[in-house]
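re: ur question from yesterday

yeah so i grabbed the chain u mentioned. its 171 aa long if i counted rite. heres the sequnce exactly as i have it in my notes:
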Amino acid sequence: MLSDPLFWLVTFVVAAAMEPWSMWVHGRMWHGALWWGHRSHHEPHTGRFELNDVFAAMHAPLAMLLIIYGFEAGDTRLHHMLIAVGYGMTMFGVSYFIVHDGFIHGRLPVQFLARFRYFRRVRNAHNAHHIREHVPPYGLFLGPQELRWHRARRQRTPRIGDPGKHRASAR
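ran it thru and got these structure tokens back, copy pasting raw so excuse formatting
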């Protein structure tokens, strides 16, 4: 299983796919119907934990079930792929925890990540999201790119009442 290149391909593809998934969940659900709990992450708080931490562990049980079932159910390629999916989800979750909770919000001693320009950009994009709560970036690792895409889209989209941006106002 561990020597199978397909196993590792699936693991890394799933880990990478978790970022767009987390962007969607964060933007549509946490800043939508689940704002009641996610709000705790955007407000000052005392103590080590916030209600939002419950959402962070949302995918862990599924990843654990995939891994456990994959190991217990048999020694087939399908079962190995279930393990790979669980590993990919776990890899993303651990990476997210280290960068988001550890580096950005200072819950772990990983400030050495500030030595890397990309992680500083990730932190800056995340901080921009906290300044204006219901706007992108909703992703973490692609936060700097998402922020750039959002700004470019806003510049291309004409706004009502903005002179010179509509054909009717050019007459």
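noticed a couple things. Residues 166-171 have pLDDT under 50 and may be disordered. also The first helix runs from residue 5 to 33.
anyway ttyl
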